[in-house]
Amino acid sequence: MDREPQITADSALIDDASSKGFSQGYEGRNDVPATRSPVMAWNEWDPLEEVIVGSLDGATIPTHHLTVIFNLPRAAQPFYRFASGWKYPKFMKKLAQAELDNFISILAGEGVKVRRPDPVDFSKKFKAPRWTSRGFCVACPRDPYLVIGDEIIESPMCWRSRYFEGDAYRSLFKEYFRAGARWTSAPRPQLTDDLYNYDYRVPNLKAGESMQFTVNEFEPVFDAADFVRCGRDLFVTRSNVTNLMGIEWLRRHLGPGFRIHEIESRCPQPMHIDSSFMPLAPGKVLVNPDYIDVEKLPAVLKKWDVLIAPRPDPVSGFMSKISMCSPWTSINVLALDEKKIVVDQSQPTLIKALKDWGFDPIPAPFLSYGPFGGSFHCATLDVRRRGVLKSYF
Question: Which residue in 296, 263, 262 sits closest to 1, CA to CA?
């Protein structure tokens, strides 16, 4: 799937422009007027200056659908089946909100400007020509949006309950656009029954069954959280929410100045790369050994330090039992720069490993956020990181 970019001398124009906070187009075109943009991020580790943090306002348990149920841990599935379409209980929101407020305080204390989406009532039912749904929430802005340089890219998500999630970000994105950012949307998906494999069953990969997915190739769909950025190189996993057409759409959209490398997941229910493969700094990537075969990583990573994540420390409590996420959300960390990393305080083994690897972990509680969709990386969308566009390979 990988294609080598045709990088020419003009590429230096991008690197020079991005270092000054300007954009001239991904391929160094000098016929596009340079603009100063409030949005500028090329990777997962440059010093974080501005970030959108998710919100629990209006959070509604997503409408029952195979793309929802088959992406949940088995223990959590009965809760989401039974409570589908209802607002999350107040006690769950209260627990998660306390952790979210603490996280926001940490970011502010590190000098990061925090922005928030607008409140939306996601319990209201909406209709498309061939389906109906209620909404979900805006706890995880990493899923619907990908920031590449000065461009905000809206992803074509396959969960029907997330179809109008973007309404909560409109006022922010209009502000960024007026100030010079680019704002792009992938083709609006129809999300008809033709897209879904309704005969899907979770494959038993240990028994040698072939990989299956809840979505087929009817139309391009992807969650932005299935991609991570390393300058001119992006890494992606095909998953239950990201198909090959979606990956190819982004590859063509970004053009020859970027490479997209596909990483095969061994997770029987793959969804979002940031609990399997997390770049932490130039030359260092954290890998979940249960879901990623290190021997099959793309050749470009041969000179990188592949840090094998320790097995997640066990956690307990009601919120962990109904979490939408696997225990490997432990590696869903947020890098504030090349050293500082926000990590869940329930993971002392990972915290020690990060220290041993030369990082400065910042522990914070966040387990109660799991029922709303993720951890620190999921809960954020980095708007601006202080750095330039580079090739790290």
Answer: 262
Number of domains present in the structure of the chain: 1
Query: What is the pTM (predicted TM-score) of this model?
Result: 0.91
Q: What is the pLDDT of residues 108-162, one digit of tens each?
A: 999 999 999 999 999 999 999 999 999 999 999 999 999 999 999 999 999 999 9
> Which token pair is 336?
């504030």
For position 122, which CATH number holds?
3.75.10.10
Name the helix (H) or strand (E) containing 341: strand 340-344
Q: Is residue 388 part of a domain?
A: no
Q: Residue 208 has what pLDDT? A: 86
Residue 272, in any domain of the structure: yes
Residue 26 tokens, joined? 């991904």
Does residue 19 form part of some domain? Answer: no
* Burial of 339: CB neighbours in 10 Å, binned 0-12, 13-18, 19+: middle
The length of the chain is 393
CA atoms lying within 13 Å on the CB side of residue 358:
11
pLDDT band at 257 (very low <50, low <70, confident <90, very high): very high
d(CA 116, CA 282): 29
Longest dimension (CA), the chain: 58
CB 259 within 8 A of CB 233: yes
Q: What is the span of the domain harbouring residue 336?
A: 46-383
pLDDT band at 206 (very low <50, low <70, confident <90, very high): confident
Alpha carbon 98 to chain centroid, angstroms: 22
Q: What is the dihedral of CA 342, 154, 83, 203, to 10 degrees?
A: -80
CA distance 155 to 143: 8
Q: What residues does 341 pair with on adjacent strands?
A: 335, 361
Catalytic residues: 223, 272, 378
Task: Give pairs for 243-246: CB < 8 Å, separation 24+.
Answer: 243/213, 243/215, 243/216, 243/217, 244/217, 245/217, 245/219, 245/220, 245/221, 246/155, 246/156, 246/186, 246/220, 246/221, 246/222
Q: CA-to-CA distance for 343 and 361, rounded, in angstroms?
A: 6
Q: Report yes or no: 324 and 72 within 8 Å, Cβ to Cβ.
A: yes
The pLDDT of residue 59 is above 50: yes
- As a whole-number percent, the residues of the chain with pLDDT over 90 amount to 87
Answer yes or no: is 202 within a domain.
yes
Place of tokens 């010093």: 47
User: Taking a C-beta distance cutoff of 8 angstroms, is the pair 138, 76 a contact?
Assistant: no
